[in-house]
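Read as chain and fold; for instance:
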Amino acid sequence: MISATEVGIEVGDVVLAGDLVTPEDAIGVVVFAHGTGSSRHSPRNRFVAETLNRARIGTFLMDLLTREEEVYDRATGELRFNIELLANRLIAAIDWLRSGPAASLRLGLFGASTGAAAALIAAAERPEDIAAVVSRGGRPDLAGSALQRVRAPTLLIVGSLDRVVLELNQQALEQLRAEKQLVVVTGATHLFEEPGALEEVARLATEWFSRHFAGGDAVQ
């Protein structure tokens, strides 16, 4: 049995919408931080989330921007690269989950594009709460000095044809001090739109979270 609830989280003077899905006997909950110009309705993130749900992992997909902010961002492109803003809102979601819905469950973060940087900063700020982090085609380099403060095991997934982002991930990998791994999906571009590419992302993420929620080993 799977429970699905739409919620609103107050962060300062805004309310952010989110979808919380909790399987029966869940072993943990993964908070999704979407990427540039996206939202909680991202079909790629929802595909990964559904795969996690089948593995008894809860998911929380939230909008990091309000509708008004999304309209402004589409016109200016400013807010999607305001990593501090995105990270603070992600931290608010972590605190909200810890205060009730996932008080006794392990938490993980799944970040895409610029959302990956926000996820890593949030992991650095909440080291006791975050058990694992996964980045899909992310920009971990935008997390800056926070990379060295991340304690959660971190998996970076990048397409082999996403060459610029791959190089940035390789550089960020060197900065991480926690358990870490970079997996390159052969033949995949930035959005993992190629046949089988997103399925591989979902598989890798599910194994990573499952093992670290249970205190196991890294993905091979």
Remarks:
- Residues 2-213 form a domain with the Rossmann fold fold (CATH 3.40.50.1820).
- The first strand starts at residue 2 and ends at 11.
- Residues 197-213 form the longest helix (17 residues).
